[in-house]
């Protein structure tokens, strides 16, 4: 028998043995996704006296230091601490739940007169309208089209990547979406003179900060996942920082028919 999860007055089942991992791996080297001019991930072998933290080099154990840039090296989740001067606003304090109902929606960005590619509110609304149940749960996963595999390794820095229309962020707030996940480096334009309009809109910062709300960037949603409803598990590290490398996992939700 499969476990059930309640949503909107109905009961859904999911299969814990059928996870869809929508995170990108963090690995050393230049062949990994990268944005905002981050240095590649680096693992350094620790040496203390005669000890070497490498079994391959004769040590008893592998023992390495990790050099990682959460916003630039791969899938990461952030809280409004990303745009606040307060160092106490950390993701580890803001994110207190880890299981959510999510809707996956796929949308192509729209070329703008200045050449920018932008995911527009009306296109997200149109994509939602094609789904049998249009309701927006507490999480929205945005897959941009085309969903090409090179996206998993793209070097985004200096390429003016696709971003979202701030009106889309406002819409998500109105709809009560607390967790927004997308396969882009940022919800905002790479270079916008520090405006970060969509970040500010999504977190309602500084007027009324949505403390529990998170944005997860640089996900990759495999083709096998169809648009629809999922159970979403967001796993993070307990770093007391505005952001953490993260591992979002989707489980397809199946509606249990009423008898
Ligand atoms: N667009 C911003 C920079 C920015 O958004 C940013 C810079 C470094 C690391 C992450 C960033 N944004 C991520 O969402 C600016 O032009 O100041």
Automatic annotation (TrEMBL):
Name this polypeptide is given: Kynurenine formamidase
Single GO term (MF): arylformamidase activity
One of the Pfam families matching this protein, by short name: Cyclase
Coiled coil feature spans: none
UniProt GO BP: L-tryptophan catabolic process to kynurenine
Alphabetized InterPro entries for the sequence: KFase/CYL, KFase_sf
Superkingdom as given in the UniProt entry: Bacteria
